[in-house]
Amino acid sequence: MNANSRNAHSRSDVHDSTNLFAAWLDADGPGKAPPGPLSDAELTDACEAARQIHDLDGGLRSYASAVASQRTRSWEDIMPTNPAFAAPTRTPAFLPASPPSPAPRNRNRFARSWQLAINAALAAILILGLGVGLWREFGPTSPTGPDGQNGLAASGTPTADTVSSSFPYPNGDECTVTPLTQDEARAFFEAVNVATPPPTVRYEHALVPSAEDSAAIMSTFRMWQACTLSMWPMAYSLPLITPWYMARHSTWFMDGYVDDPEDAKDKRPVSDRTIEYLTKISTADETQRATITAAYSDLFPTPTSSGTPMDGPPTATYVPIPNGATPIASPTTSPTRGRSAFPSIFARDITIIGPDRASALVYSVDERSGEIMPITPRVAEFVKVDGHWLLDDFYEPNRG
Amino acid sequence: MPDELSDLDIVLRSRTNPDAFGLLFARYWPAIFTYCLRRLQEPDAADDAASSVFVKAFAARERFQSFRSPSGHNVRSWLFSIAHNVVVDAWRSNRQTLSVDRPGSTIAATLADRGTPPEDEALDAEEARVVAAVLTHLPERQRSLVELRLSGLSTTEVAEILGLSVSATKSLQFRAYRALRDVLRANPALLTREIPS
After folding, report:
1. What is the ipTM of this complex?
2. Per residue in B142-159, pLDDT tens?
3. Distance of CA A205 to the CA centre of its chain
4. Which residue from A49, A307, A315 is facing B8, i.e. has the nearest CB?
């Protein structure tokens, strides 16, 4: 046996041992006899150490159980301690105090969200996350549009428009953004792919924005909603967001729950093939998306059977829309998305929170009942880049 | 029935009915609390960390994408991923206040504060101290792996949480437990009983 074959044999032994040990450990090994030949000293050692440490750890588990039983934590204990879940947030102070309305039946907008992962056309939608809205009602020529709301946005107080229980569906023509070209889209994704988001600089106290900034922010947000409608290629909405919005909310780049920047780095870079796919899908029209996604099916892990959507509509409670709120409706049906509804959104309380950085509270509104969903509001953050306000982040108020 | 809901069902349902998240909390609080306690050693710190895990999970529930998990829709891995980050952060920020010289002594002290501990509680405390002491001898990643294994997670789940391939996790795991053996042999004073040779 020459040196090479001995080395290969040795590597094979180690490989077998690691596999044997993993299988043994996964099968509740510490309670069983070690696997493999007893002559494999390293494997035996590992098994014995596992037995010892798992046995000793029983003491900690017992102790933890005793401590936990004394504390008797419940979800209700935790929720009120977090400002995001406390009553003032869940039911904003400006909302009239009235009992929640019963949830409309057949509201299952989120129930099939798992299906988005494997639906070709939905990949682009997932990347942009949450945005769907209506521009028509708030377009530049609309009486409730940005031009008519400068004062509203500046003061942070909605005007006293009458709120209807139903809203017209958006019209794609109301997205008037010049879309990115393929080269520009690729540059956008590559910008996300090379680094973590830059640090956010904030003022110690929020400032009242100018009427001009408020109008521009509101305009950006509503245009973004209009341009994220399912029929629009992503290239139309990319000019309205920063690359770091993509980094925070895209499935492909998302830091997700990773709070540690060091860990977040592990999520990127994504592969060249992923960038290629995103570039193509972002500039493809609706008829091309399925074909493109099928060609890149290897990028999509196959869901397991446990992904069966839940049956029946989820339950929810709703509170009335506040007086003077200016809701933006959304389509109740979308052949592409396969959803029956999606929250509509309006914004208020726009503030300047840092150099060229602003935030606004945004609320989801049920387009059927016109009532606010109590899980909102969320915070939308914007940054001013080259004189234009772009959406930079979107999160629940308790974050950070 | 709530008990019949899968973890994924609960997460999906909680997106429209936030109260549903309480089911996930009830299901995983003991395991997450124990995991946090194993690392942080202090019940109050573990309580805070475990609470933070569920608050973060609740906030991120709409971003939970089941297909990100190679094994499908592993909510448990997701929760432990959050817990892993939380305890690492807590450890980094509080390491100067933790019992470095005698890991696990906080647990023993806590038991002592509750009065004269029964014999079995004293043994629990001593065993917990030994585990904590042994694990401090491992490199960070190996320690994290063993802590996750002690929490009952599988090789695949640990791989997901640590962001490693399954094969890399198997190798790391094998090395970690062999290193544990060395630590146990080299530090007999840590042990409350002899390890069979």
Report:
1. 0.77
2. 888 999 999 989 998 888
3. 27
4. A307
